[in-house]
Amino acid sequence: MSMTLTSRDRAALAGVHPDLVRVVARAAMLTPVPFRVFEGVRSVARQRDYVRRGVSRTMNSRHLKAANGVGHAVDLVLAFDVDGDGTIDGTDHWANPASPQGADAWRRLEMAVKTAARELGVPVEWGGDWQRFRDYPHWQLPWKAYPAARPVPAQRSPGARDPDEAILRAGHEGAVVRDVQAKLARLGYVVPVNGLVDARTVFVVRVVQRQNGLAIDGVLGPRTRTAIDAMVAAQRRGEPAGADMARADLEVAGVSASPGEETEQAAATRQAAVTGGSGALAGAGLVGQGVEQAAEAARHGQAVFSPGTALYGVLGLAVALLLGLQAWRMLKRAGALPGWLGGAP
User: Residues 1-28: what's their mean pLDDT?
Assistant: First the structure.
């Protein structure tokens, strides 16, 4: 499961150190439980009120803007419709960590954030690990690694477009594209570093999206680029990443040693293989969600077969069939379809 940060979440992250923002964004891609960004930068007056009410125990909080102009902490809260009113609001945020369900949910969120931080090479501290005052929503950058006076990258003016949030599609070009291509090449993918989102770049992006459980559309969006950054960080730590993990996909698809050696027919065959494989994975994923939902229902003594589980099964089969049909059409247009499947004799 993954989730998308809402505009309210992103507004709460305004003024927070960019490294911590990247960790939260990556955690949203990894988390098995939904969460919301409750608070980022905090005013001195609000902090003083928290101390007065016992919500916080210090006026030296990492939520306050430091000498370098940014905050170094965020509060992430579990987002469940606890009261069953159909909306997630202030009454739903605080799952009780003392209850079995609440403890499990906080543990899952903890693992998602810590995994995201490890992948990106950003050290973090969790309030849930503190012994004297457990603060489960609280995440901060360590004082030692991120002293208050350490300079941070220049902040954008309000309303300025963040190049990291740009959506780059086939035909787009520029320095951001070149930077992503360089990272992909470093990861072992065969891709030209020419600053243009060409057909081969789109294909490799689809492979990366498939590896990371993202929507397979070949578009270089923020989530895909965050996943690429995480793979680069894993490679630096000596862990398998990039083409090492996708070698089987690439060999089945018939990718050549260099971009110039691939024929048009081979490119179409490769693209069709990835499309068909994506359909199988996406379909299996939806069916798997249905099975998981049924198992959860059984654990709670509820009906195993429900409209929800049936819907997941039907959707899974439909997605697999539709993408399989698309792969068949690609092969037929390229003349690479066997005769027994309707290709030219």
Answer: 87
